[in-house]
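Tokens as discussed.
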């Protein structure tokens, strides 16, 4: 019984960590940026703001299906299908984010995001497989990895935001 509860807790915590780490929408923070540009002919800052918003919107759009899948895993953390959905959403997200050309100021963060999406895909698939195989030890290990992924995603989102690219 204790192992069963520990397994549940690990997967619940990992799902919550991933959901809490979900990248925020850039639309909230963009509302104030364009307001200062219409009266001034400062093309470089307008272009920079547009580029920042464009990049953030592209990344947000690509990550939306993954974040939806993560919400599903939060709702049903012991469902192999939920984790399968996260794994299946993370793969295409990784490929699509990788295809986006990042602004030079966040190129290194972009590379980190791509790598993290790959780990989320692998770790979510491991959680799915552990649940399907009724392997409590593997579920605990996968839950810990997914929780780590969630914390890393949260930290990375904060770094993007600090660099002026809230995703």
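Sequence:
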């Amino acid at each position: 019984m204790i192992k069963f509860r520990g397994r549940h807790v690990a997967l619940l915590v990992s799902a919550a960590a991933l959901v809490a780490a979900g990248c925020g929408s850039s639309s909230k923070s963009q509302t104030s940026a364009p307001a200062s540009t219409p009266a001034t002919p400062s093309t470089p800052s307008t272009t920079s703001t547009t580029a920042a918003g464009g990049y953030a919107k592209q990344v947000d759009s690509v990550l939306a299906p993954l974040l939806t899948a993560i919400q599903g895993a939060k709702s049903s953390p012991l469902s192999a299908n939920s984790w399968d959905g996260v794994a299946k959403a993370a793969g295409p997200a990784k490929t699509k984010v990788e295809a986006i050309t990042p602004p030079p100021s966040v190129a290194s963060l972009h590379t980190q995001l791509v790598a993290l999406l790959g780990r989320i895909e692998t770790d979510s698939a491991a959680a799915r497989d552990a649940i399907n195989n009724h392997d409590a030890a593997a579920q605990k290990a996968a839950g810990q990895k997914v929780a780590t992924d969630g914390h890393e995603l949260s930290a990375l989102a904060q770094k993007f935001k600090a660099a002026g690219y809230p995703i």
